[in-house]
Amino acid sequence: MLKPFDKPIYTTRPVLPDINKVNLRLIEVWESQWLTNMGKQHEYLENELKKVLKVKSLSLFNNGTIALMVACKSLEISGEVITTPFTFAATPHALNWAGLEPKFCDIDEQTLNINPQKIEELITVNTKAILGVHVFGIPCAVKEIDDIAKKYDLKVIYDAAHAFETELEGIGIGNFGDITMFSMHSTKLMHTIEGGILTYKDQELGRKINQLKNFGIDTNSQEQEYDLIGLNGKLNEVQAVIGQEVLKIREIERQKRSKILNLYNERLSKIEGITMVSRGDTSQESFQYFPIRIRDSRVTRNILHNRLQDYNIFTRKYFYPLCSNFNCYKNIDTANPFNLPVANRISEEILCLPYYGGLNDNDINKICDIIENIME
Ligand SMILES: *Cc1c(COP(=O)(O)O)cnc(C)c1O
To answer: Which of 253, 198, 227 is closest to 72 using CA atoms?
Structure first.
């Protein structure tokens, strides 16, 4: 048996700016005596993010889940929303919290995203929107989804929690659909410890989004008026400066993950039983996760996951269990595994490997040696 790692190797580690730099920024916030409610730091981060994501308009939030709930609310829809079961719990949960009913659609074997060919058969008179997830930063079939949405007059929302800086032919992924949500949780490459972003094109919609995240207060009117039932979705100034500092070092992290991606690809694609996940036709990667599939092998995904722990390597079964198999969703009509064969199968095959800049070539080679050894 190969030697285990001395210290545990997790799937991800937060991108941490130099604490002394963060301290200086905190002093700045303290001196301003403005801690939250869309202050200067918040505005600065918004403008920086617009450039990085290549979008015209965006709004910041205290987390991605609240942002997604506000996105749903702002569209003023009620009824059913077609979505993918192969995602984090926050996706269908946000729909429910916004009073909408998720309808699970099977996924595409290649992109692991909602299968556009399977959407139309789920559309009823009550269908109001499609919520796609660019899972692992792999883009959804945005063109096909757009065509379906136009044909049936549906709204389109994207969960781009894994797709920060993903681009399609040079276009930022946040430019597709009516609204796109990005998460800035600590596990995401770009983060504000906790945080979220909504991007959109419609300025009227943007005003509504900003009102909804601030208790429904219309800041443009003279009197404080409450036209909408909002909530508190604000990102504070301390998190805004941390976001600015993370933004400054993200390019270095991206380069490190790019190297890891190449090394993993080179090593793992040669191992029998491992199927690489195609990264889609992106012109720029998000470098958020490194998933592989384990299939047609004596060693199953669960065996590999467990055996890696003996070597102090802790991988994640993203996304197992499938949202449609959660106790809180398994009884809805579209959750039947019979209707979601691809999603159920992929969920048994998928494994996310350690993926963060702190891992050097030796670490990655060692992880690959161990995987190779287990798979034999
Ligand atoms: C991280 C994540 C979210 C939102 O997470 P928050 O922690 O609320 O920012 C939503 N969807 C997916 C797929 C995610 O991975």
So the answer is: 198
Residue 171: CA count within 13 A, CB half-sphere? 10
Q: Is 150 left (phi over 0), alpha (psi -120 to 50) or beta?
A: alpha
pLDDT score of 218:
83
Under a CB-based contact definition with an 8 Å cutoff, are residues 340 and 106 in contact? yes
**Residue with CA closest to ligand 1 atom 2:** 161
**Per the structure block, which two tokens stand in for 234?**
């604000």
How many A from CA of 70 to the centre of ligand 1? 14
Residue with tokens 């969703």: 329
Looking at the chain, list the stretches that DSSP marks H as alpha helix, in order from N- to C-terminal side: 19-32, 40-53, 64-74, 90-97, 142-152, 203-212, 237-268, 301-309, 341-349, 361-375
Pocket lining for ligand 1, CB < 6 angstroms: 63-65, 87-88, 90-91, 133, 159, 161-162, 183, 185, 196
Q: Indicate the angle between helix axes 90-97 and 64-74, nearest 10 degrees.
A: 40
Q: What is the pLDDT of residue 219?
A: 72
pLDDT at residue 228 in the model: 93
> Distance (Å, rounded) from C-alpha 55 to C-alpha 39?
21
> Which residues, other chains included, contact 33 with Cβ-Cβ below 8 Å and sequence gap of 6+?
none
Distance from CA of residue 304 to its chain's centroid?
25
CA separation for the pair 54, 19 (Å, rounded): 29
CA of 91 to the centre of ligand 1 (A): 7
290-294 and 274-276 strand pairing: antiparallel
Residue nearest to atom 6 of ligand 1 (CA): 64
Which of 177, 163, 223, 204 shows the shortest CA–CA distance to 74? 204
Best residue among 83, 87, 88, 352 to mutate for probing ligand 1's pocket (most ligand atoms within 8 Å of CB) is 88
pTM for the complete prediction? 0.97
pLDDT top residue among 48 and 280: 48
- Tokens 């609310």 correspond to 73
Neighbours of 23 (CB within 10 A): 10
